[in-house]
Amino acid sequence: MSTSFDVYPTTFNVPTYSALLEKANQLVNSRMKSLKNNSEFELNISLQNKNESIPVKLTDKFDIHEEYYIWVSTDRISGGFCIYQYNNDQMYKELWEDELRREQSQKYEKKIIKSIERPYHWSVVRYAGTDPFYNLSYGLFASALAELTEGIIFSDDNAWEYSRFPCLPSEFNTFYFNPEQTVDKEHRNWAVENINLLVNDFDGN
Questions:
Q1: What pLDDT does 54 receive?
Q2: Are 45 and 52 in contact (CB under 8 A)?
């Protein structure tokens, strides 16, 4: 089982790996500090497929070659999460045609139309059994990528409350992993459980 946050860019200006990591680490460490955890974490990335792992050149533009995916992890915690790149083919265009019937999607109609004219989008994915740290950070990584590409975030696989999507990264940062901003009981309890584990695992510092 997996859940994902899809990022649809609206610009052709793609960040470097270095800029993306800097923004993602900033978001993750800021959120961890808000949870009274002052530990510093550094996310790292590599390009992988079924047979090999390739270090990325941090000054290169963020791009995922066909048949590869990005693996994101930190040396301090086992596990990680993946990022895939998908072409905006007819299937995704039809998906958005259906989505634009929803009021929430209509708020961002111009951005949606602009985004599906771009050649691709990304999907940030976590799998069942992932450490609470990655449950938090995969969402914030998606937010960082959306911010740097002037994109929108979307999910319809129960990664979070479907009614919230699509959304801007600034909106996402206010409600994701925030029990006080969560209407659905299932997601609220999941956030509370993960936050408690994060605090206890690192003794709050």
A1: 86
A2: no
Give the helix/strand (H/E) hosting 5. Answer: strand 2-8
Mean pLDDT of 123-128: 97
Across-strand partners of 45?
Answer: 72
- Per-residue HEC secondary structure of 44-84 comes to EEEEECCCCEEECCCCCECCCCCCCEEEEEECCEEEEEEEE
**Residue carrying the six token digits 């990584």:** 141
Burial 131-151 (b: 16+ CB within 10 A, else e): bbbbbbbbbbbbbbbbbbbeb
Domain ranges of the chain: 2-173
* 81 in Cβ contact with 2 (< 8 Å): no
Query: Phi, psi at residue 154, to the nearest 5°?
Result: -140, 145
Measured CA angle at 150 (ends 93, 62), to 5 deg:
85
Burial of 112 (C-beta count, 10 Å sphere; 0-12/13-18/19+) = buried
pLDDT-derived band at 112 (thresholds 50, 70, 90) equals very high
Instruction: Yes or no: say if 70 and 82 are a contact pair by the CB < 8 Å rule.
Output: yes
Single pTM value for the model: 0.95
Give Dmax (Cα) for the chain: 49
